[in-house]
Design a protein that fits this description.
single chain, alpha+beta, Ribosomal Protein S5, domain 2, Alpha-Beta Plaits, 2 domains, 9 helices, 24% strand
Amino acid sequence: MTVATAVAGTNIALVKYWGKRDEALNLPATGSLSLTLDRLGTRTRVAFDGGDGGGDLLTLNGARADEKTSRRVSAFLDRVRARAGVDTRATVVTDNSVPTASGLASSASGFAALALAASRAAGLDLPPNELSALARLGSGSAARSIFGGFVEMAPGTRADGTDATAHPLAANVQGPPGAPPGVWEVRLVVAITAAGEKAIGSTAAMTHTARTSPFYQAWIAGVDADLAAARAAIDRRDLAALGAVAERSALRMHATALAADPAIVYWNPATLAAIARVRALRDASPATQAFFTIDAGPHVKVLCAAEDADRVAAALAGVPGVLRTLVAAPGPGARIVEAA
């Protein structure tokens, strides 16, 4: 029996991807740029031990996973088995510190950890770019969680998706103690504005948006400029410039979804109130540099300097409808923590 356990942090996209050029291979329609976090993520143990005797056995947060999730994981494991030349069923034990399907990118950390643990348990030692491509097959955003800190995802042009992989940014610059190379002292404050799963999953929402939104092509056309601006801002360590890109990208992504027919609305009153509070922090005297982003869900994430994180968290905690806040720092990429 071969066993491996991996951990991976979730990532929050600052330049979003929204839409796919190939759904079967999870090939994104555009590039994207994200920040991998330290305290939100997934720990996954994979053992190719025969599973439950008839198939793979998946335990998620201490309970047997539902059929839909189990099918998705087994389909991913089938890809690993085919690549490694093994046919043994597996037992997978996964624990998430991210609420599942809530708009906090649980699938990013989940499939990054699964890709690393499953490939190692199957006897594969994939280089980072191939591991990123493998993780993408489970979840498009998982390709980015293979790496730590700021990460850019390429959409690629090849039909087989081999060039649709992620890579870390500014890896030659040393960040603060304990941080991944290339990361400066920023924080992401997360305001949780709802409990439970979101009404429509990201994949279904992307497909619906691409098919019905009159804004979709304009959204696609603007992403490359946002990526260039975000890269330049990271190179300069310019928080205001990066924050402006993050807000613009998030608002445009949600605008395409709102314009779909019928509309996809992820926000709730607390989402809007949190946005207003972030803008008020910037307008206050003295001003606090704080910039929001929102993924496919109602929660608001706020990029700020490390020294301002507690102030931003306290301000968001006072917003009606915000259930709780947490502060995350840049984190490392996916890594093996146990193998046998």
